[in-house]
Design goal:
single chain; about 290 residues; alpha+beta; Trypsin Inhibitor V, Chain A; 4-stranded mixed sheet; 6 helices; 16 strands; about 25% strand
């Protein structure tokens, strides 16, 4: 009981003590001032009430874009460069955040810009096995362009026979700049266009091959067993037969090779004479008919 009386007596004296109220007032003032400072500091830190609209920078040059960013009190960072052959170097391709969004001042805008230097890509193997459609897909997947397309006589319609840069053949696996135009030579298939067969009889095989290569003639070469050096051999027979038969453009010509040059080389006159003799023999009366 005495303790309770003593406690209340202490509180009564404390309330009557003016220094207690002075300390309480000072403590309360410190709390209020600290709270005000905290609130204003928080507004400064978070930039409360300070905002900007993100400008549209896409397709603008980087220098123009930086000027627009700084005008809105924003910051920027270029995070990547991508090759675009249809855009000037330094053109802004992508940005984040998107144009039109409201953001706090000082927000960083990330940019992707175009580069003028094309990366190198590997030339694919298109010849010998590819259709035109496959070649287009393969070129597009590697960022290469389809250049000029030339059709030449061949039984394989739309088959890729050659791949070139300009007029120079390009080997598969060669590293070339992305965006390079690739010219293709394609087979046009048999066109039902009959022409006179060329005459290779009596010619060396090496000469025949050069003519066939220049004129895109497919050859099928048949060697006699005694031929040791094929390039020094002579054509002694061929199909289709010269001056007698026609063949379809792109059709294979069969040539037969021996070590000896044939003595009887056909000419238009000799073939005509031979055909006339055949006609006479065919129409000649049979001598045993009247017996």
């Amino acid at each position: 009981m005495e303790r309770i009386k003593d406690f209340f007596a202490f509180l009564l004296n404390l309330i009557k003590d003016k220094y207690f109220w002075i300390n309480m007032a000072a403590a309360l003032a410190v709390v209020i001032v600290s709270l005000i400072i905290f609130i204003f500091s928080l507004k400064i830190i978070t930039k409360y009430g300070q905002s900007s609209v993100v400008p549209n920078l896409v397709n603008k040059h980087i220098l123009e874009g930086i000027s627009m960013i700084e005008k809105e009190n924003l910051t920027y960072k270029v995070i990547d460069s991508v090759y675009r052959d249809n855009l000037p170097s330094g053109t802004i391709i992508e940005m984040n955040p998107s144009p039109g969004l409201t953001v706090k001042k000082g927000r960083e805008i990330t940019l992707v810009v175009s580069s003028s230097q094309a990366p190198l890509v590997e030339m694919p193997a298109l010849t010998g096995r590819s259709s035109f459609r496959f070649a287009q897909i393969e070129l597009d997947s590697r960022g290469l362009k389809l250049g000029n397309v030339q059709y030449v006589p061949s039984p394989e319609k739309d088959a890729v026979l050659e791949q070139k840069i300009g007029n120079t053949p390009i080997k598969p696996g060669t590293m070339i700049p992305k965006g390079t135009p690739i010219n293709l030579v394609l087979g046009d298939g048999l066109q039902n266009l009959l022409i006179d067969a060329p005459n290779f009889i009596g010619m060396r095989l090496i000469d025949v091959q050069q003519i066939a290569l220049a004129q895109k003639m497919p050859l099928s070469i048949h060697m006699d067993p005694n031929v040791k050096d094929s390039l020094q051999g002579f054509v002694y027979r061929q199909f289709p037969v010269p001056y007698e038969e026609q063949y379809n453009i792109g059709e294979t010509i069969d040539v037969f090779i021996s070590v000896q040059k044939p003595s009887n080389i056909p000419t238009p006159e000799s073939v005509k004479e031979k055909n006339e003799l055949k006609t006479i023999e065919k129409n000649k009366p049979n001598g045993n008919l009247g017996e």
